[in-house]
Amino acid sequence: MNAVYNNSRIVVAVLDNLATAMTGHQPHPGTGVTGMHSPAERILIEKIAEGCGVKYVRVVNPFRTREAAAVLKEALQQSGPSVVVFRAPCTLVDAREKRRRGIEVVPTRITEKCTNCMACISLLGCPAIVAEGGKVRIDENSCAACGLCISVCPYDVIEGSCAE
Ligand code: SF4
Ligand code: SF4
Question: Most C-beta atoms within 10 A of its C-beta, which of 10, 77, 84, 105?
């Protein structure tokens, strides 16, 4: 509200993974279930931002990296405050739900065509991607199959399902 009132030129980035990730995935007003696990209407942060008078409000899937970068660039060009909500389900919660429904979660895989350029390591910091002896591999026990590494590999040598 202060930013709107003073027309501050800032971008507020909201990272919404539809979970209370730091304490154990409990429901919160944005998840769509109550503390007793019955369905509830989600309170959307973008509606709150609009209600506060923010003119530039966008919701984007951060796994669609090109689209997310374009939205962020546009937000940075606004003359007043802007809000970008990066929304995608927590991959751990998503994978757990899929397994519960009997859907196989296949870890992402780096093929032999890898050039060992290390872009996936330096750009992402995903703990499942490990470098050993100058070579890169994905630890399948840690991979949540989110597909983000696929979109950052400049040589398209990572196989799996990607949000892009
Ligand atoms: S970014 Fe792609 S080519 Fe580069 S090390 Fe990672 S998997 Fe290999
Ligand atoms: S798919 Fe996601 S979790 Fe798996 S290695 Fe790539 S970035 Fe990490």
Answer: 84
pLDDT per residue over 45-97, tens digit each? 999 999 999 999 999 999 888 899 999 999 999 999 999 999 998 888 888 88
* Fold of the 109-159 domain: Alpha-Beta Plaits (3.30.70)
Determine phi and psi for 83, rounding to 5 degrees. Answer: -130, 125
Q: Choose one of 139, 157, 162 to mutate for the ligand 1 pocket test, by most ligand atoms within 8 angstroms of C-beta.
A: 157
pTM: 0.81
Extents of the domains making up the chain:
2-89, 109-159
Nearest-atom number in ligand 2 for the CA of 129 is 5
